[in-house]
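Here is one chain, start to finish.
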Amino acid sequence: MHLQGNESIPVIPSRNVVIFPGNTAPVRVGRAKSKAAIEQAQAGKKFVVLLSQKDVHQEDEPKADDLHRVGTLCRIERVVGTPETGYQAVLRGMCRIEVDLFETKANVLAVKVSEVPERLDVDQQTANALIESMKKLAFEILELIPGDTRQVVQLVDAITELPVLVNLAAENLQVASAKKQQLLEHVSLKARALDLLQLMQSQKESLELQAEIREKLSHKMGKQQRESILREQLKAIRDELGEGAEETETDFTKKIDDAGMPDDVRKIALTEARRLESLGANSPESNVIRNYLDLLCAMPWNTSSEDRIDLNNARKILDADHYGLEKIKRRIIQHLAVMKLKKEGKGSILLLVGPPGVGKTSLGQSIAKALDRKFVRASLGGVRDDSEIRGHRRTYIGAMPGRVIQGIKRAGVNNPVFMLDEIDKLGRGYSGDPAAALLEVLDPEQNNTFADHYLDVPFDLSKVLFIATANSLESIPGPLLDRMEVIEVAGYTTPEKLHIAKNHLVPKQFSEHGLTPEQATFSDDALLRLITGYTREAGVRELQRHVTALCRAATERVLDEKEALPVQIGSAQVEDILGAEKFIYEVAERVVPPGVVTGLAWTPRGGEILFVESSLMPGTGKLLLTGQLGEVMKESAHIALSLVRSNLPTLVPGFDYDKKDIHVHVPAGAIPKDGPSAGVTMLTTLASLFSGRAVSPKLAMTGEITLRGAVTPVGGVKEKVLGAHRAGIERILLSRRNERDLKDVPDEVKSQIQFLFVDTVADVLKAALDLDVTPAVPLGVGGGASAAGVNFGDSHTV
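Its structure:
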């Protein structure tokens, strides 16, 4: 177009828009002088000059030195807006211009310009090659741009003139305005086309990289997006079916108010509920918070079951569920009496210790029934991680509360009877010590603010009646044991087992096998033979298994039409069904040679008898000990040998000890044995061996000896006496200071056994071998009591 040199045209400074000749673009006009320029141009010939700012970040009104001198003469196609809100102008580029003079008219920046013509410095062949290359790059770029670009492709494909294509491509290229300004200032068409091709190639590579990144992100996020979409669809389906949506903050607020939480816990719960509302349903953390709030609302913060303590009713329940165990039941009744008098007292922690199968777990259930409380049981056998007790932190995937909080939640009340079964079987691994975690749980002074890692707020356990069970005290740490009141549950006697079998085991198994008393009967002789010939245990589990086997056989015979009803299961039928007896009590019948003595041992399953054998052989005076004996038991053997040697002239005049070796063996060599109470047994077996006198097989003994010849008391007397009674022993030799321990032994057992109490080893030899020994050194009676050792598993403590 033709420009007159003396014509002033309003200027619109631009921060980020460069318009090329022949192209149309919208421009936002907001600065005061720019709005005045638009208004002046509208009132005149509707021409403005668009000049780019040198500093694109400058927001103030630019001056002449702040603008490039090469720009575009544009015609105003359309203007919308007001002076207050600013204008949106559509400008069409007419030609490239260069500023000759800047001037200000009516507070509007204006310029006098001259046109900069295009220098067409390419031949037709070069132009065609540039057009082809430019179109190819444009098509490739358009393919990489998301969206529908088919109309743009058709527009580009229809262009046949190089200047038009260059201006169109430069206008729409996504590059900085400074780059576009450089292209606009190029007078040479060839130079501008080549620079544009380079910029288009860079743009293409950038878009390819972005597309590759989008594809990787899409593949990575695809699963989460699909899950999110499916959740939204599932939510919509539930809404349509009227099944309700996920719980919101309002829903949880009502639950929190109804839960009766303490104020500090309620504040935390409300904070978490607000967090849940702000996160939204698609956040992965929302499920963690929702599960946490569900637990907080489900906990029985102030829900308690009312104790209905009736001591007479409690006695009836304990007697109905357990036969015998009078001392234990009396202790439980006393505990219930204290709870009835002091209703606001703290929860108690009881520890029931005894052999397997004596009814420790069922005693806990009976206590809950007597109190009319909920009963919760948690088995701790094999637990090696303290998180099983205290829970996991919520930051971990799959975190959950510990067994204590889970049990309280299941019970639905804050004062259940909580059974911690097999507390002596707790392990200790790299994840922590669960026994240490129980210290807070089982301390009445601390457990009113028990802090589970998952719950993360204090919970009051002081109202809970904790009852722990164990087979042995040895593996329970001292600090944990100190927090519990120990109640020992001893084994059953043979009459007690017979009563339990007749009144509990047989009716129970009859019911489970569909038998009735009209169809089958078990004689007392059959049950007694089961007890004495097929079981040797403190409890009744093995006895129950054998009763079950007899019931199966009886069921088969009942269905046999040839059998007359009722089917009789007597002593003879027991051997036909179960085979030969496993345990034969020949201890009280056979004649034993000199050097064989019966001792008594304590095991976690109850008391048992133990043989000690010895023999002489030519040698040099050595003492050989076998039978997997512990260090304490070996020391007892050496003490016994020293006592025998010191009195050897009295026992066997002329015996040459240095020419003989002594071998002492305790049978059942696969079972470890240890403890000090085998001292009198070792002494008697050596004295019997040297003197050639046999010890009565009906006599058993236990007691520790000292080097000065005193017999001191030992522990586990009740269990040992019951084991001797089961084995058919008629006489038991004990330290006189153990006489007080016999008050715990049932009367029916004491009536069948003669007890011999001794003070010194001379008394032992007189009672066992009828030997009158005048010791070379006076034998005292002093000496301290020694506690019976305790070993796990199939070990014997003697």
